[in-house]
Each structure stands twice: as C-alpha cells, then as structure tokens.
Amino acid sequence: MAKYLIQRIIYMIITLLIIISATFFLMKIMPGSPFNNLGGKITPEQQAFLEEKYGLDEPVPVQYFNYITGVFQGDFGVSFQYENRPVSQMILDRIGPSAELGAQALIIGAILGIILGMIAAIKHNTWLDYSSNIIAVIGISIPSFVFAGLLQYYLAVKWQIFPVSFWESPIHTVLPTIALMIFPMAICARFMRTEMLEVLGSDYIELARAKGVSNNSIMFKHALRNALIPVITVLGPMTVSLMTGTLVIEQIFAVPGIGEQFVTSINTNDYPVIMGTTILFAVLFVVVILIVDLLYGLIDPRIRITGGKE
Amino acid sequence: MDKATEKYSKEKFQRVHVREELSEELTRPQLSFWKDAWLRLSKNKGAIGGLIVILLIVALALVGPLMNDYKMDEANYDAAYLPPKVPGLGWLGLDGMQTYEVQGTTVDDAVQRGITGYEIEEQYVLNTEVVEEPNESNDNYYKVAMEVDIYAAKGLDDTYYWFGTDNMGRDLWTRIWKGTQISLLIGVLAALIDMVIGVLYGGISGYYGGRTDNIMQRIIEVLSGIPNLVIVILMIMLLDPGLTAIIIALSITGWIGMARIVRGQVMKLKGQEFVLAARTLGANDKRILMKHLIPNVLSVIIINTMFTIPSAIFFESFLSFIGLGLVPPDASLGTLIDTAFDDYRVYPYMLVFPAVIISLLMIGFNILADGMRDALDPKMRR
C-alpha cells in the first residue's frame, strides 16, 4: 500500500511538472503580446519598461526557472491586465463562488442521481425505469450551456421565478446549480442503475430473500451499500464535467468565479492568470483521481491494489 | 386395460426414422455476427429512433442550404433580426411577428417609446398587451408587449426567412444547416483520428507487451493525468483558430481511452489458440495484428468510436462558446449558439433552433451508441 501510494504520488508530480512546463512554453510561443490590448497606445520604450517590470526581458530558461520555483512557493506571478495583482490572490478571491457552486452541484447531483438510479433498478422495466433512463440520456446529451440558456430564458426571463444572473443570495445560486448538476446527476444515475441491477441479481441477495429478509431491508441494507461503492469511480468524470461546466455557466449567469475569470483571461491574453488557473485545474483533477483510487481500495477490501490500472 | 392406454395403444405409433445426415442440418438461416447485431439493434426502438433522428439531421444539413437562395455569408443589414416566417406555418408561431417588451409611464407612452426606439411606423404595431401593471418593483412603469409585423415594417412583405435572420441579416436557415455540417464533420473526423491512433497505439502496446508495453503505458498514465479541457484550450490558443486547430486539439488526448480499451482486449486475445495457430502457420506480427486481433476487437472499437462522436461535437460547441472556436463567417452549431446568447432575450429564435438541433443530435448519437453497445456486445449490456 505504501509503495503504491509513493508510486502514485511520484506520477502525480511528474504529470504536474509536465503540465506546468507545457503551459509555460506554450505561453511563450503564443502569438500576440500581453500588451496588445492596451490599444497600441504605448511607445516601444514603455513596452520595454513593462517587459522589464514583469521579467519578460530575461532569457526564457531563466524565466522558466523563476516560474517553477515561484509555483512551488505558491507564487504564480502577477496579472498583466489588472495592475500588479498577484495571480494567487486573484484566484483566492474568486474561488469562493466557484467552490460553492461546484459543491452544491456535486452533492445535489450525486444524491439525485443515486436516487434516480436506485428507483430505476428497483422498478426495472417499468415506466419509472424508462423515464429515469430518458432523464439520464437527456442529461448526458444536452450541452450544459444550452441547458443553462433554456433555463435562464424560461425560468428567469419569461416566467421570472428566479433571478436572471449575478451571485448575491442563495436564490441566485439555484439556476446555475441546476445547470451544472444535470450532467453529474445523469452519469451517477446511469452508473447506479447498472450497479444496483448487478447486485440485485447476485447470489447473496437471493440468499437474503430465501431467508425471508424483508424487501426494504434487502434494498437498503444489502443492495444499496454494495452498489454505492463503484459509484465512487464516477467522481473523476464528474469533476471534469464540473470544471468544464463552470467555464460556461459562470459566464452565462455572471457568477464571479474562477471559470469566468479564466475565459476573460483567454480573451485578453493574460498569460499568468491562464497558467495559474490551468495548474489549479490540473492539480484538482490529479488529486481527485488519486483520492478516488485510494478510497476505492479502502472502502472495498475485495479490491486489492497491486499498482497500475486494471 | 383402462381407456387411456387403449386409446393410445402402441400400434398407433410409428417410429420416426432419424437420418444421421439430417440431424446435423441447420434449420434456421445462418447469421453472421453483423447480421445478428443488426437484428438485435433493430429491435431496440430507442436506438432506431436515434438513428432516424441522426439521418434526418444529416439529410437536412446536406440539403437544407440548397433549399433557398440565400448564401451563408450574405449579409443584408436591412433584414437584420427578422424572426422566423414560413409560408403556411403561421399557426405554429412561424409568422414573422416580433414581440418587443417596452416600458413607459402609460400604455401609450410605452408603445410610443417602442416605436421610436425600434424605428418602426405605427401602422405595423398589430397588438399591444400589458404584461405588468405599475408597481413598486418596476419603478411604477407599465410593461407592455407589443407585437409588430416586422417584415412589413421593413418593406419585406414577400420575403420569407424560415429560421429568421441574425444580427447581420444573414439567413439563419442556411447558416444553421451549414453549421450542422461543420459540427458533424468535426465530430466524425475527430472520432476517426482518435480511432486510428488509439487502435494502433493500444494494439502495439498490448501485442508486444513487456518493455514496449511498460513504456507506452507509463506515457499514457502521465498523459491521462492531464485534464483534456486544459490541453484542448492550450492547443487552440497555440494554433490558428479554425477547423484544423479544433480537430487537432480534440485528437491530442482523445485517443487515450481507445488505446486503453484496445490494449486490454488485445492482451486478452493474444494468448488464445487461434493466434497460436496463425503463428504456427507462419503469419508475421503485422498479419496477426491486422487480420486476427483487430477484427476481434472491432465491435469494441466501433462502440467506443460511436461514443466519441457526440463528445467531439460537444467539445467543439463548448470551445466556440468560450470564444475559441471557428472564426466568423464560418459557423458551427457552437458559434451560432454563442452569437445567439448576446441578444436572445429579445430574439429567442436565434438560440432555440441551433440549441434544439444540437440537443437532438447529441441525444440521437448517445442513444444509438448505447443501442450499438447492447447489440454488438451482449456481455456489456447495461
């Protein structure tokens, strides 16, 4: 176990190093200077001054070394667009709404998904099963921004049940959360249904029935617990969908989060912010995958970790 | 002897002669694997529904732009922001009427403001309806919905834009179907590239095993740790925006899933007797891989490719939505939705049509892929 953990962490660090380096060098060969957006109003002297100020006049390897050492100290440089604001500070300022939105979507989505999947499996081949399947297919298929747009148009603009945008009170979080949770909910429901059906068909459930255990007890004590374990594995794809989703949904609902910042930075060539956010996303993803793999082994003793993927 | 035994007495029965050669005969027509899979698929109503939806959209995407005389990049500023109007389909709401929401201290004032604001003559205002009476929350203004015959107001009585026009007066019918073509093209091309790279990589890695496999798997392990969202965005920023950039960006990490699946299958298959037999007969590695292993993995490859198409279509529209997609006047469903978002509150038709088409397309592909998984690989049935 310890050996496996160390091996995994080494891979994690290699992956992150590759991502940081790749991001850094890509940004270096990217067309367009960060100062293009100043409207061409600066003289070459001013440009040279700005470049010196941000350390852009040094040779690339030196810049690279400085950046890497900075990253490990939590310093991601300063934004080009916002006067002297450290990227780490910008990210910290904006992580709140994103984290809140993401957590709400993940928790509500997962719970609803598990319930949907369970109902579908228990009422296998009835209209309940079919309608839960239809909801799952729709949730997986419809792009989150299309869904968000339709929600915003009908529920906010037309019928005015919810506020159209901004991030001020819990009621403002309703629409973005629904838009963001629909995909995690759908994959959770599908996975749960499959697992539950498999568990319900297994020998020990048969035995429990033969012993005369009540139906409720079978469902909740025997089947649900075992079916829940593999659902942990969809946490990976769920995190990815949340990251993708925040980029567009924060924009649509004007949520002051990281995703919205990221999209703005892409459009203004604000390289330090792009790099910082990219690294944050990568770390988040890698850590979630590691946690999933470890949890899976811990919760279910039947799975013995032997290193490498199955 | 009781009655029953008498009734069915021995003499009444005759032995059927079993002919050796007939007992081996097949009474049902022989089914190849693919015919069998098709039979199973055709029984799946959902999958067939998905297939029909896809075929319809593909047909319209190909034929649609030819059905009227507008060009996709033909701007006509006099005809900007026209709602959909189809001859004979007025009852469906496709009547070319535009509803504006206006505010004023009285109903007349509101309408008057609307008329000056939107530059229309009064005679074309067909209907007004009070949406909201003055109250505290709207600063004591009347909110009035006024219905305008905007085609007549712009002097375009006999013109029909089936899906309306956009901010530059381009025909949305033509643009939407052209955009659907592009989205489909991106989906299919990205899926094919992923398939080729994934099958080769996974096949080689799984077949040769040992050290080759070890190194190739470590590479995959590191690559798969990188969220593809990040790679795709970085690649798009690096390359000149456009169709090629999107396809390359989608293919860079897209093949990993396929490579893993193919490797697993090949490793499972390569120890089986038929491979040993082929080797004994002198077949070389290339032949064994291409003629024996890959065909056996084919169903898994097809299933996986079918799932890649909708995800590629989604990713393209997502990139377009955050401003990293195609450059106008080129259009894909994603860019159309992105443009529509700017003013969909007044002109919802701009959002609704591409949104519905992309949703139908995605649902169609996902259901069909599910059905194909069930049909091609009954063991994986979920």
Describe the structure.
The complex is a heterodimer of chains A (310) and B (382). Chain A is mainly α. Chain A is built from 12 helices and no strands. Chain A has a domain at 100-256: MetI-like (MetI-like fold, Orthogonal Bundle). Chain A has helices at 2-29, 44-53, 60-72, 87-122, 127-141, 144-158, 174-200, 203-211, 215-231, 235-252, 258-268, 271-299. In chain A, α1 packs across α3. By secondary structure, chain B is mostly helical. Chain B has 2 domains: 85-153; 172-380, MetI-like (MetI-like fold), CATH 1.10.3720. Chain B contains 14 helices and 3 strands. Chain B has helices at residues 3-7, 20-23, 33-42, 45-63, 107-118, 150-153, 172-208, 210-224, 228-238, 243-270, 273-280, 285-321, 333-342, 349-376, and strands at 97-104, 125-132, 142-149. Chain B has a 3-stranded antiparallel β-sheet. In chain B, α3 (33-42) crosses α14 (349-376) and α10 packs antiparallel against α12 (285-321). The radius of gyration of chain B is 31 Å and the shape is extended.
List the keywords:
heterodimer, A: 310 residues, mainly alpha, MetI-like fold, 0% strand, B: 382 residues, 3-stranded antiparallel beta sheet, 14 helices, 3 strands
Mean pLDDT of chain B: 79
Decide which structural class fits the backbone of chain A: mainly alpha
**Largest interface, counted by CB within 8 Å of the partner chain's CB:** A-B, 47 and 38 residues
The figure for the number of domains of chain B is 2
Just name the CATH architecture of the domain at 100-256 in chain A: Orthogonal Bundle
